[in-house]
Amino acid sequence: MLTWRRVSESDFGLLGAWLAQPHVARWWQHDTSAEGIERDFGPAARGAEPAEDLLVMEDGMPVALVQRCRFADYPDYHAEVAGQIELPDTAITIDYLLGDPNRVGQGLGPRIVRAIVAATWTDRPDASAVVVPVHATNRASWRALEKAGLHRIGTAELIPDNPDDDRTHYVYRVDRPAGHPPPPPPVTDHD
Which SUPFAM superfamilies does the record associate with it (predicted)? Predict the structure, then answer.
């Protein structure tokens, strides 16, 4: 069973260990020192940043990190992506990693993405779509998105996380299902 909660400062040691794993470090260019982890994950853990850093557990054991946010909360990134593909103003994006290299290739990634996307329709009632850019050479990541039901909608030239990579990213999208309509607009009183 998959569950998740917001990352707290007590998780920073685990995040540092995961980010140092070669299968993660290749795609997530982070300073894994205590100071670097605090700088990169502290604001979200304290609620001072709009992104959600979620610690995913399988049967109570931490297995993954998922970051979820609205593109609109990060205007520079929103502009970079929206300048190249159709991006709804209410789109959400996610990023993810599996911490244990022994869990890669066992179907856990697609299960996590599928579960987080499904929860997004409830957690974020204004979200119209989940849109995920992933580097074109990160086959494991974009295959996980495909297995989770997202569809490739195009290619975008974006700043890569790893400066050794080129700018080519595949962009994946899934729209809010018909069974999860967005909330009605607020009622205003017209005198």
Answer: Acyl-CoA N-acyltransferases (Nat) (SSF55729)
Contact 103, 97 (CB under 8 A): no
102-113 confidence digits (pLDDT tens):
889 899 999 999
Given a cut of 50, is residue 147 above it in pLDDT?
A: yes
For tokens 């990213």, the residue is 169
Are residues 167 and 134 in contact, defined by beta-carbon separation less than 8 angstroms? no
Residue in this structure with the two tokens 């962009």, named with its chain if needed: 171
pLDDT at 184 exceeding the cut of 80: no
What residues contact 59, with CB distance under 8 A and at least 6 apart? 1
The structure tokens listed for 184 are 């009605």
Pure H helices in 88-169:
108-123, 139-147
Residue 149 to residues 20, 119, 138, 152, 170: CA-CA distances in angstroms? Answer: 29, 14, 17, 10, 15
Segments making up each domain of the chain, as ranges: 2-175
Longest dimension (CA), the chain: 63
Instruction: Supply the pTM of this predicted model.
Output: 0.90
The Cα 45–Cα 10 span in angstroms is 10
* Residue at token pair 């039901």: 149
First to last CA, the chain: 52
Q: What is the pLDDT of residue 187?
A: 54
Mean pLDDT of the chain: 93
